[in-house]
Amino acid sequence: MSIFSFFRSAPRASAVQAKERLQIVMAHERAGRTGPDYLPMLQQELLAVIAKYIDIDQNKVEVKLDRGGDCSTLELNIELPAREAAAKALKESAKLAVAGNRPAAKDGDESDAVKLAAGGSLTNGGVKKRR
Amino acid sequence: MGKIIVMTSGKGGVGKTTSSAAFATGLALRGFKTVVIDFDVGLRNLDLIMGCERRVVFDFINVINGEAKLSQALIKDKRIDNLSILPTSQTRDKDALTREGVEKVLNELSKDFDYIVCDSPAGIERGALMALYFADHAVIVTNPEVSSVRDSDRILGVLASRSRRAEQGLEPVTQQLLLTRYDPERVERGEMLKVDDVLEILAIPLLGVIPESQAVLRASNVGMPVILDEASNAGQAYLDSVSRFLGEDVEHRFVTPQKKGLFSRLLRRSA
Ligand SMILES: Nc1ncnc2c1ncn2[C@@H]1O[C@H](COP(=O)(O)OP(=O)(O)OP(=O)(O)O)[C@@H](O)[C@H]1O
Ligand SMILES: [Mg+2]
Q1: In the prediction, which pLDDT does A100 show?
Q2: pLDDT per residue as tens digits for the range B76-115
Q3: More confident residue, B97 or B267
Q4: B226 contacts B18 by C-beta, under 8 angstroms
Q5: Confidence check on the interface: ipTM exceeds 0.85, yes or no
Q6: CA B67, CA B82: separation in Å to the nearest integer?
Q7: For chain A, how many helices (H) and strands (E)?
Q8: Is B11 annotated as a binding residue?
Q9: What domains are defined for chain A?
Q10: Spatial separation of the C-alpha atoms in residues B70 and A104, rounded to whole Å
């Protein structure tokens, strides 16, 4: 290393990249971990049903589980393809609210009936439009 | 009733055994009756680090299987009065650890000891799960490095869902971070995650920062827990960490580079 490199401005520190990468991957992993056991299956099956009717891009699907006091919501954000080529990119997202009556829902529990709540329809006013 | 501490990390080779030996020794030095247990079945090493490898006759698994009494397997440390070691088996596999067996041994130990330090194996399988299952406190041993931080986070998830305290809905296992092999100079050069970065990501309280230190290898060579090398940075950092564990407010040391003259820094950089 020459004496000049001592004064050279440092490239973006690798430790900064390490931190950013960790934050991203771990946010993802933590979200996946808090869900009940049936969540991945439920997710897949819901997507399969929707895919039967609408051509969705699997990469444009965002699934989120929120734990509330006595109500948990499962949020599915699906970016639908623009209907016409002429139409400007219209982003639509369908929000399915799945309410469980307890926060720590356990697999196979009777009281845990999954119901599609208001806004569950993809075709009517239940569709939430972004922007 | 003794308190159960687990030294755990997910990732291998980050310093769990070094830290278990140091911590147990530190607690004993402070007057607490302490036992340190090797949960790394099949890869016994704590005995070497504690310097009692030639005194092992019976082990943890023998006790679980009823082949020996606990008192026959416990090894009393020759240097420190209050300290005992429970070595593990070198020949069996992790399946030898049954939950009932581990529980029985821990119950018996907690009648006689103030602290039971469990040296967990790497991974998140049986051995590691058994080591953390009964814990009251978890010390998360982490290196300032991406895979270690990520694995620590996974272990935190396991503690929150699969420990006895979690399963029985009791007060959660307390969790503290022990950041080991920290190199302040590399941190300063932007090559290593800072303490604050790791704390921000893992979001648990900091128990201590143990600097990367040649004293650790030297101590292991001679079978002496590094905390007994009081002249070393690592030894002092472990002593501080034990004090913090006991609730004392001790400032963190060895987190910034030692002051050096410009001349030696230039020499070092061009080396
Ligand atoms: N602060 C330190 N400075 C320098 N070397 C260290 C430090 N801490 C640990 N080491 C070294 O790192 C290596 C691994 O340490 P140790 O055996 O304690 O890790 P471990 O987490 O118990 O590993 P395993 O997962 O295999 O059980 C050893 O060679 C040890 O000497
Ligand atoms: Mg080890």
Answers
A1: 45
A2: 999 999 999 999 998 888 889 999 999 999 999 999 999 9
A3: B97
A4: yes
A5: no
A6: 26
A7: 2, 6
A8: yes
A9: 21-84 (3.30.1070.10)
A10: 40
Q: Please choose, from the candidates A25, A13, A15, the residue with its C-alpha nearest in 3D space to the C-alpha of residue B150.
A: A25
β-pairing verdict for B3-8 and B115-119: parallel
Spatial CB neighbours of B18, under 8 Å, sequence gap ≥ 6 = B49, B180, B216, B220, B226
Of A3, A13, A26, the CB nearest to B201: A26
What backbone phi and psi angles, to 5 degrees, belong to B160? -75, -15
Q: Is B143 in the pocket of ligand 1 (CB under 6 A)?
A: no
Please indicate if the annotation marks B247 as binding a ligand: no
Partners of B142 in the β-ladder: B179
Which residues lie at CB < 5 A from ion ligand 2?
B 16-17
| E strand spans, chain A | 61-67, 72-78, 92-93, 98-99, 115-116, 128-129
How far is it, in rounded angstroms, from Cα A113 to Cα A125?
Answer: 25
Of A1, A21, A33, the CB nearest to B146: A21
Residue A7's pLDDT is what? 52
How far apart (Å, rounded) are the C-alpha atoms in residues B202 and A106?
Answer: 26
Q: Tell me what the pLDDT averaged over chain B comes to.
A: 94
- CA of B86 relative to ligand 2 center, distance in Å: 14
The DSSP secondary structure of chain B, one letter per residue, reads: -PEEEEEE-SSTTSSHHHHHHHHHHHHHHTT--EEEEE--TTS--HHHHHT-GGG--S-HHHHHTTSS-HHHH-EE-SS-TTEEEE---SSS-GGG--HHHHHHHHHHHHHH-SEEEEEPPSSSSHHHHHHHHT-SEEEEEE-SSHHHHHHHHHHHHHHHHHSHHHHTT-SPPEEEEEEEEE-HHHHHTTSS--HHHHHHHH-S-EEEEEEP-HHHHHHHHHT--GGG-TTSHHHHHHHHHHHHHTT------SSSPPP--HHHHHHHHH-
Cα distance from A88 to chain B (closest Cα, Å)? 40
Beta strands B34-38; B115-119: pairing state = parallel
